[in-house]
Amino acid sequence: MKNTLKQVFRSANFRIGFIIIVLILLLITIYPIFSPGNPLQMIGYDSFIPPGLYVSLYDSLDVPRIYTLRLEGADQIRIYAKLRPTDRELIRDWLLLYSEYNEVFELRKEDINLEDTEALLGLWWTYFDPEIRFENLTIAERRAFARLDTRIDGIFDLYDKYIWTYNPETGEQELVGSVTNLAYINVSDVTNVRLLPLGTDNFGRDMFKQLVSAITTSLAIGLIAGLIATMIGLVLGLLSGYLSGFVDDVIMFFTNLFTVIPGIVLLILISYSIGQEQRGPATVAIVIGLTSWVWTTRSVRAQVLSLRNRDHVNLSKLSGHSLPRIVIKDILPYIASYVVMAFILQVSSAILAEAGLSMLGLGPRTTETATLGLMMNWAMRYTAHLSGAWWAYYPVILVIALISFALNLINTGLDRVFNPQLRD
What we know:
Helix content: 55-70%
Shape: elongated
CATH class of the largest domain: Mainly Alpha
CATH architecture of the largest domain: Orthogonal Bundle
Order of helices and strands: HHEHEHHHHEEEEHHHHHHHHHH
Largest sheet: 2 strands, antiparallel
Radius of gyration: 33 Å
Strand content: 5-15%
Strand order of the largest sheet: 1-6
């Protein structure tokens, strides 16, 4: 056993896949300890809040000390941030119109770098003239350019900002303080600070906490479904391969019948017939397991057929040993490594099957827990891709691919150790 484990861990594929799975397991084990609570709790009132560190603006007004800092380039950064992407596009549009209007001034769209704030403002101040009337330009478009010119002039205003509060005794507003462009606070002094590594989804729920919970649920579904499919396939394959005859014909008849019918069709029909309210994670896992045993049965049967007439098996028969003892003692140990590899592939297939079902709206109930497939379904249903909310679907896709990739690497590594034809 010790030598076998050494051979397994010598495989680079197995080591990489094993490390990935261990890191994922550590994440789903440790993170809930530091961030407890319901992963489906709605913490935001806005949809698709982007990732970042969020500081309570209300609490930041009551910090014990405000520091004065002169940071190099701070004003340039403010100007860059105030010039919004839509403003930059408007500047480019006006410059292209002016290029068509003035034959001397030649400028192409690809020559304008929207990220170069200094160059953009330089071209705007040099060539913008509110008196120019371009052809086919609507009044609304002319007003948009005029508002842009006013806004550009205002981004260089660095006036102090004043804080007023309402006095209930006098009924008047009172000045309580001012903030200059050199005022800074320490984030550690702010009472409420929240890190959202993956922002929030369309419901205002913490995406990272939800993703960790979804990984846990999807792995549980994969393990349950993989165990059911592997056990059914193992039992049927052992009986079919060893007993042969009528038993083999009956088992292979049903196996071939399920082979002809696509598994995804069975999954869809069964899941739809169960109904949304009855479809919990365990139910979905059982359904996937009951429809995924076919190829395991055929593979185990092929392995048993090659073992049933071996000398040690015939010796057990002549010794009068029972069928269960012969199967468990003389056949099963020789295919144990293959069964383990089949189980790993079944787990990977079950996770992908759950994701596919959930994408079709036939996954587990959406009100109790999150799965990787449900998160993809929510992102698609609420048009995260159209809103530019990449954090609502890219991390989920990456995790699904990573889990499948790691499990397949582990399976490949085991195959290279236990398959004599692939052994170096």
